[in-house]
Amino acid sequence: NFMLTQPHSVSESPGKTVTISCTGSSGSIASNYVQWYQQRPGSAPTTVIYEDNQRPSGVPARFSGSIDSSSNSASLTISGLKTEDEADYYCQSYDGSNHWVFGGGTKLTVL
Amino acid sequence: EVQLVESGGGLVQPGGSLRLSCAASGFTFSSYWMSWVRQAPGKGLEWVANIKQDGSDKYYVDSVKGRFTISRDNAKNSLYLQMNSLRAEDTAMYYCARVFWGVRWFDPWGQGTLVTVSS
After folding, report:
1. Long-range pairs of B36-39 with CB within 8 A, sequence gap ≥ 24
2. Are B98 and B91 in contact (CB under 8 A)?
3. A88: number of Cβ within 10 Å
4. Closest-CA residue to A37 (of A1, A76, A10)
5. Could you tell me which of A48, A47, A12, A6 has the C-alpha nearest to residue A29?
6. Omega of the bond prior to B108 within 30 degrees of 0, cis?
7. Phi then psi for A84, rounded to 5 degrees?
8. Which residues of A touch B45 (CB under 8 A)?
9. Residue B77 per-residue DSSP state
10. Whether A105 and B110 lie within 8 Å, measured CB to CB
């Protein structure tokens, strides 16, 4: 089964840049789009990146997404970190067989 | 404004049944695939099921096949999840979400309804 693997946690200081990785277990992660969701405690997930690197309206340009086929991974980069960015982040894609997959989630701490 | 509001969660004994509902507004419900996604307490997100615009195609995660049924009523702008033979491991917050099929993207999500399976 296709799986997406994320680091359990990352931490960085305000104003810095952090990158969260999402590695596909098999096949090519570039074959299907990757989305990234932010989930703050007690709230539903919201989209920060869709279609690998597109930002919904209202999401600041500090958030960016990319795909690296050589490592079969997707990345979410947040620059100019703010304390409000502290949340759980999930990548999500599709396995090509009518099953949809989420990464295990990464807890971002801004300290 | 696009809005999804889930209801129907609660405490149920193992082996019991529950029916979740999701009321949609602010968009043409009948034009979109819809999904259920769940999150066990303190755990990550897990896709549960998808349903096509007219209800003719449905897909499920393996762990709920044969026990859960996704359905919709386009006249009522509503999505449903009938959950039978519930197990402790089904305990989770259940979210409904609109699907952008071409991208395989869930957006937006409802606020969720909590299902607890316990004796």
Report:
1. B36/B70, B36/B79, B36/B81, B36/B94, B36/B95, B36/B96, B36/B97, B37/B94, B37/B95, B37/B96, B37/B97, B37/B106, B37/B109, B38/B90, B38/B92, B38/B93, B38/B94, B38/B95, B38/B115, B39/B92, B39/B93, B39/B95, B39/B112
2. no
3. 19
4. A76
5. A6
6. yes
7. -70, -15
8. 37, 39, 45, 90, 92, 102, 105
9. T
10. no
pLDDT digits (tens, 9 = 90+) for A12-39: 999 999 999 999 998 888 889 999 999 9
**Which of B45, B61, B100 lies nearest to residue A45, judging by beta carbons?**
B45
B103 and A102: CB-CB below 8 Å? no
Confidence of residue A96 (pLDDT cuts 50, 70, 90): confident
Amino acid B102: pLDDT: 86
Measured from the Cβ of residue A106, the count of other Cβ atoms closer than 10 Å reads 22
Inter-chain CB proximity A46 and B109 less than 8 Å: yes
**CB burial of residue B30 (10 Å; 0-12, 13-18, 19+):** middle
B117 near B68, Cβ under 8 Å? no
- pLDDT per residue as tens digits for the range B63-76: 999 999 999 999 99
Residue A66 DSSP class: E
CB A93 within 8 A of CB A35: yes
Beta carbons of A22 and A109 less than 8 angstroms apart: no
In the three-class reduction of DSSP (H, G, I as helix; E, B as strand; rest coil), residue B75 is classed as helix
